Automatic annotation (TrEMBL):
It comes from Mariniphaga anaerophila. It holds the Pfam family Alginate_exp. This is Alginate export. Residues 1-22 form the signal peptide. The keyword Iron does not apply. Residues 63-379 form the Alginate export domain. Keywords: Signal. It comes from the Bacteria. InterPro entries: Alginate_export_dom (IPR025388).
Length: 407
C-alpha cells in the first residue's frame, strides 16, 4: 500500500478507536532458549553425552478492548534452530493460532468468551497456560462469566471430527467433551475457589462405535493472609471412569506457607497406584495444569510423563529474591512415591535442586538462566530408564523480548 494513503487511514482508525473509548495494543514476543540436558525428564545412561538445543517462540499479539467487547488474536511460531532449511519454501512450516477469541457483554456483569483461549485459574494446578513450554496451552471452548462480588465461570467444550456422518472425534486434543464450573470469592484477607470439572475422553470400541469415558475432579483452594505470611491449601478429589474402564479414586492436596522475605515451603501429595492394588485407579492426574511450576524444573513428574504411575510426595522449600533489575530463585525438592513401586523398592525417588537468575536489561528485555541437578535414588531406575548414579543435570539460558509496536 502507498505510504501516503496508509498514514491517513491509520490516523483515522486510531481517531475512531479513541472516540469509541477503545483500546488497541499490538505487541510481540521473541523468546529463544538454549537448553543443556543430560538427565532431563528421565535418568541419563552411563555413556550419555550432554545435548545442547535451542528453540524459539515468536508471537504477534493483537488485543482490542471496549466497554462491551474484548478480542484477542495471538499468532505463534515455535521451532528448533536448525529445524528449517535456510532456503525455505514454507510448505511444511506454518504459523499457528495460539489464541483467537472474542468476549461480548450480554448483560451487566455477565459475558460470554468464545474461541481459542488460555485457561488460567488459581495457582494453575488444574488449569494453566503452561507458559514455560514454547507452544503453551490453549483450549477451544465457550466460557460464560458472571463477575461481581463473586466470580462464577462455566466452560463448555465439545470436539468432533469434520466427518458429519458420525459424531466421532479422532483429533489430537486430550478430551472430546469438557465442562467445568469455577467459583471464586475474595474477602479482605481470605480467598476461596471451588472447581467442578467433568472430563470426557473418547475411546474407540470399534470402527462403528466410540465411547466417551468421563472422570470428575472436585475441590478447590483456600488462601489466607497474615501480617508477615500467606497460607494456602489445595484439595482435589478425582472419581469417575478411567479409559481402561476401571473406577478412579485419586487425591491431591497441598499445604504451603509463604513469608514476605521470599521464603516459602510446603508439602504436596498426589496419590498413585501400587503394584499390589488393581481394583481401582488411584493415580491422580493434574490434567491441564502448569505442572512445570510445581514438582521440580527438571520435569520428572507430570510434564508429559508419570501419569497413571505411583504418584508423588513432594516436600519443598523455595526462596525468591528480586531487587531492581535482578532476580534470583532457588528451589529444593525431596521426592518419594505415594504408592508402592514393589515389595522391595524404597519409596525415596530423589532430591532436586533448582537455581535461577534473571536480569532486566531494558524494559521488555530480560535475560534469564538456570541450572538444576537431580540426586536420584535407586528406585528412580524402576520408573525412568537410565542410571541413577551417572549424574542428572539440566540448564538453560533464555532471552525474552516483548516489544509493544502500537498502543
Amino acid at each position: 500500500m502507498n505510504r501516503n494513503i496508509f498514514l491517513p487511514l491509520a490516523a483515522a482508525a486510531l481517531f475512531m478507536f479513541s472516540e469509541a473509548r477503545a483500546q488497541f495494543v499490538l505487541s510481540g514476543e521473541f523468546r529463544p532458549r538454549t537448553e543443556f540436558s543430560r538427565g532431563y525428564k528421565s535418568l541419563a545412561a552411563e555413556d550419555q553425552k550432554m545435548s545442547v538445543t535451542t528453540a524459539q517462540r515468536t508471537r504477534l499479539n493483537a488485543i482490542f478492548n471496549t466497554e462491551t467487547i474484548k478480542a484477542k488474536l495471538v499468532l505463534q511460531d515455535v521451532r528448533y534452530w536448525g529445524g528449517q532449511p535456510q532456503l525455505v519454501t514454507n510448505e511444511d512450516f506454518a504459523t499457528s493460532i495460539h489464541e483467537a477469541w472474542a468476549e461480548v457483554q450480554l448483560a451487566k456483569n455477565f459475558s460470554v468468551k468464545a474461541g481459542r483461549q488460555e485457561l488460567v485459574y488459581d495457582d494453575s494446578r488444574m488449569f494453566g497456560n503452561v507458559g514455560w513450554a514454547h507452544q503453551a496451552r490453549s483450549h477451544d471452548l465457550a466460557l460464560f462469566k458472571i463477575e461481581n462480588e463473586i466470580k462464577l465461570h462455566l466452560g463448555i467444550a465439545h470436539h468432533e471430527s469434520p466427518d458429519i456422518t458420525n459424531n466421532f472425534y479422532y483429533g489430537p486434543d486430550a478430551y472430546k467433551n469438557m465442562q467445568f464450573l469455577w467459583f471464586n470469592k475474595t474477602w479482605e484477607k481470605t480467598g476461596l475457589s471451588l472447581l467442578l470439572l467433568n472430563n470426557g475422553v473418547p475411546l474407540n470400541i470399534s470402527d462403528e462405535k466410540q465411547e466417551t469415558r468421563y472422570s470428575q475432579t472436585l475441590g478447590g483452594r483456600v488462601t489466607h493472609m497474615l501480617s508477615n505470611a500467606t497460607f494456602a491449601a489445595n484439595l482435589y478429589y478425582q472419581t469417575g471412569k478411567h479409559t481402561s474402564g476401571a473406577d478412579i479414586s485419586a487425591l491431591n492436596f497441598l499445604l504451603e506457607a509463604s513469608l514476605k522475605n521470599g521464603i516459602s515451603g510446603g508439602y504436596e501429595y498426589l496419590s498413585g497406584n501400587s503394584h499390589d492394588k488393581y481394583d481401582k485407579v488411584y493415580a491422580f492426574n493434574p490434567l491441564y495444569g502448569t505442572n512445570h511450576k510445581f514438582n521440580g524444573f527438571m520435569d520428572y513428574f507430570y510434564v508429559g510423563n508419570h501419569i497413571n504411575s505411583v504418584g508423588l510426595n513432594d516436600i519443598y522449600i523455595r526462596y525468591k529474591y528480586k531487587k531492581d533489575k535482578l532476580g534470583f530463585e532457588g528451589h529444593l525438592h525431596y521426592f518419594s512415591s505415594a504408592g508402592k513401586i514393589s515389595d522391595s523398592a524404597k519409596k525415596y525417588l530423589g532430591t532436586e535442586l533448582d537455581l535461577g537468575v534473571s536480569y532486566a536489561v531494558h524494559p521488555g528485555a530480560v535475560i534469564s538462566a538456570g541450572w538444576s541437578v537431580m540426586f536420584a535414588g535407586e528406585s528412580m531406575e524402576l520408573l525412568k530408564e537410565g542410571n541413577h548414579e551417572t549424574g542428572q543435570h539440566w540448564g538453560y539460558i533464555m532471552l525474552s523480548v516483548t516489544p509493544v509496536f502500537l498502543k
